[in-house]
Amino acid sequence: MIAHVAEASEDKGRVVVRLGEFAMSSPAAISAAIHVATAFRSQLEGLFIEDPDLYNACTHANLREVAMTGRAPALLSPIKLGRDAEAFAVAVQRQLSNAASAAGVRFTARVVRETPIKALQDACAERGPWNIIVFAEPIEGRERGAFVSDTIAQVWGTTGYIATGARAAWRAGPIIVAIEDVGHLTGMIRAAERLAAVAGDEIQLIPVGIDEIGLDWLEGEIRLTLGEGSSVAVLPRPVYAGSSLVLHAAISAYRPRMVIARHGGFLLPSGETAKPLAGLGCPVFMVH
Amino acid sequence: MFNFFQRTPKASPAILVVPDDADQRTADDGSAATATAPTPSNSPPVVSANGHATSQAAGKTSADYTPDASIFGLADARRAMALIASAKPRALFFIAAPRTAGHAAAVRALLAEQAAKIPPGDAVAVVSSFDDRRPLSILRLPGPEANALAAGIADAIEMLSVTIPAAFDSDSYKVARLALDEELRSGHDNAIDALKRRASAQNIGLLRTPLGYAIAPMHEGRVVAPDVFKALPEGLKAGVEAKLSAFEAELSGVLDNRTLLQQDYRTRLRDLDEEVASLAVRASLAAVTKAIAAREAAAAWVDALSADLVRNAALFVTAARRAGGGARAPVEIAHDPALARYRVQVMNLQQSSSPSIDDPDSLERASLCGVAHVPPPGVPLTPFSLVPGVLSRAGGGLVVMDARDVVADFGAWPLLNQVFKSGAAQPADAASPIARPAGMSVPVDARLILTGDLDDYRAFCAADPEGARAVRLIEAFDATIPMTPDVERAFASLIAGIVAEEGLQPVDGAAIAVLMHDRTTTAGAASLLSTDCDIIRDSLILANHHARSQARVVTSAGDIISALKRRARQDEQMALPGRKAESAAP
After folding, report:
1. Going along chain A, which residue ranges are E strands?
2. Fewer Cβ atoms within 10 Å of its own Cβ: the N or the C terminal residue of chain A?
3. What domains appear along chain A, each with residue ranges and CATH number?
4. Residues of chain A with pLDDT > 90: what percent?
5. Residue ranges of chain B with pLDDT lower than 70?
6. Structural contact between residues A54 and A81, judged by C-beta atoms closer than 8 angstroms
């Protein structure tokens, strides 16, 4: 995790906020980014990525834009695209900058014209491997969910990713750590401790899985790791009931500030990211 | 013939005969000026005044008579005022009586008797109509039922503040909502994804732009450069452009369909929300619905309330979120402006018992008209914003006002007259009586009682001769009554009654005679007696003090004369012509 690195050298940790592909940033994602940056005393970078294909396409004389508003298709010139994109980039950067400034977090803004994965790879390569990527736009739909999965699979130099679903809320509440295996247990608890310390939140662990016997063993390991007298609570494990939607609803019922979970596991399957994010209803800190 | 007072027709009304020692006693304080006259008999004469004389048995005092402090003419007044209880709502009366404290108290007591006889009518409950064009409605219910409805609805709202947020926070709702959200998302995403895939298969790319999508020719996943595209054979270019146009049209269709999907989603989401909310609403209103089932209008209103609660269940969820998910205090719920439309405002204070006499503190229009507050412009009118004024508070009872106040306030009487004619009062803002919400009126059932003496009645008639015709005059008490043996007996009992009530020492027969003389003098004719008891009571108290200061155990005529003189001096100082003339000492 990023924690030990940030402790060792304050300047090395960095939260890279991937600003939306023409979608406004989720306030919950922005708050989560600020919270993480505060917790790890790291700096924040707003990365606005322009799609080079789109700018190339604009050089076609007759490129038309089909508007979401239902307006009749109209010619899209490089000038119009540049103007619209700049206005959008300024708006989302300002939103992030204002939040960082209010929280006293160092902030830098950057605009790059590159494919999104490549842009994130480059950004994280500059100061790896101590980056956390925050997806500012709400992750809705298969395409954006797939983009998150692709980023996690292809971008190196990162220690975690934060994404939010549609209608995610940022609120005071516990930091819930979904434990699916003991391998990540210590690191996730350490991350949770850092995150919880910012606002004095409670840490709650929840064993997640399908296999009841495996879960019994996992819960035993969790309690063993925590030891007696730990202030970390272990929540009753949710009943699977044949649908992961029920699990997401059960965890969201605790009204967490943030959930820490392993991407590619049972709670956050790698092939389906948007649904769990929508179900959990809060920012999710995903680890490999 | 009453054995205490005897008529002495030949005696001069101007001559008062008092016992020999009266002169001496009153001279002690230097204020007594006692006239004496020959007595008509050998027995100790007590009084000869206004044509009446007495051969009072020696040694008789007020203690020898049955105490009765009732005002003169009480029985007649009671008979006259019986009309009030049998009158219809909104009847107007003028109760004429001399302006004395004793008469005022008697009138109040008789009005209270009449008020108690009026059967309680239906209460007026102001409720929201749940219709923006006509913000409020009126329900007429028996008082106890109106109060029960108001309390039941308040309880239900308090309950819903907990149960609705809980229902929307339940796992079952969340899962249903997620499934719906997912259906919308996948419906739209599937369409866009399918279009993208089909376009991609034909080397056409859908690129996201700030405001929508652009469609461009692609090759191996990248946009074809314009110069490369230009270099393509015309036939190939035309084919690509045709594809671009076709996908553009299809994309427009998909985006249009997105709106339809969203509409469908909204409808289904609303249905889901209403389904969840209606369970909670039905449960919370079950008791009220059952209790009110026999009252058609009220039952219809509860149905409308139920529908409105279901439609606006989000109000409760939002309030719970504002409270951080914690329980809200009952007082917080009761004063939540967002929930004010669900209040039942019962405008009458006493529906369960007999109507009350309500004496307004002021004649302000807003207070009179039944509504003392209207919210500022732009703020919705709610039952909560209405404060019952005097006309509403009285229900079907009596509203008693001093006629002089009504005549003195030029604005009050026309307004009152109009309200009692129409039977309805419009709300008025206490700060701005001119401001009135349209289409809102509160029924008024009260009977209006104006009080005053006959001079006041004449002034009232002169101020509004036409309006005065609608007002029935009841002459409850006369300023004077004919002197008869019964009245003489009653006078002695009155003295005894006042002595008993005030805890005074006994008054001797001469003193009683002096007081009677004073009252006949005030009445202006020997055959009449003034009914003003205030002066009698006051004089007795003063005389009692005078006698006690001289260590006597019975108050005598001299004490009374001294007291009457003292009153006369006081009235002169006060420079009140009416009082001066009335209480002139003999």
Report:
1. 14-19, 43-50, 64-67, 74-75, 107-113, 131-135, 158-163, 175-179, 203-207, 233-234, 258-262, 284-287
2. C
3. 2-163 (3.40.50.620), 175-287 (3.40.50.620)
4. 48
5. 1-59, 325, 349-385, 410, 427-440, 575-586
6. yes
Domain spans in chain B, listed from the N-terminal domain onward: 6-63+482-582, 77-120+353-475, 131-347
- Per-residue pLDDT tens over the stretch B492-513: 999 999 999 999 999 998 999 8
What is d(CA B115, CA B312) in angstroms, rounded to the nearest whole number?
44
* Residues B147-185: tens digit of each pLDDT: 999 999 999 999 999 999 999 988 788 878 878 877 777
Alpha-carbon distance of A85 to B472, in angstroms, equals: 84
Which ranges in B464-532 belong to alpha helices (H)? 465-468, 485-502, 509-523
Q: How close, in Å, is residue A1 to chain B by CA atoms?
A: 32
Note the pTM of the prediction, 2 decimals: 0.59
CA distances (Å), B23 to each of A103, A220, B5, B27, B110, in order? 100, 115, 22, 6, 43
Centroid of chain to Cα B93: 20
3-class secondary-structure state, position B559 = helix
Q: H-helix or E-strand containing B451?
A: strand B447-452
Here the tokens at position B375 are 């919210």
Residue A53 to residue B208, Cβ atoms within 8 A: no
Residue with the larger pLDDT of the pair A72 and A257: A257
Among the listed residues B559, B550, B551, the one whose alpha carbon sits nearest the alpha carbon of residue B499? B559
Cα–Cα distance, A173 to A255 (Å, whole number): 6
3-state helix, strand, coil in chain A (%, to 5): 45, 20, 35
CB contact under 8 A, B208 and A54: yes
Topology at the third CATH level for domain B6-63+482-582: Helicase, Ruva Protein; domain 3 (1.10.8)
State both tokens at A70: 């239902």
What is the structure's pLDDT at B584? 44
A22/B213 touch (CB, cutoff 8 Å), yes or no: no
B241 token code pair: 């452009």
CATH architecture of B77-120+353-475: 3-Layer(aba) Sandwich (3.40)
CA distance B242 to chain A (A): 12
Q: Which of the 8 DSSP states describes residue B276?
A: H
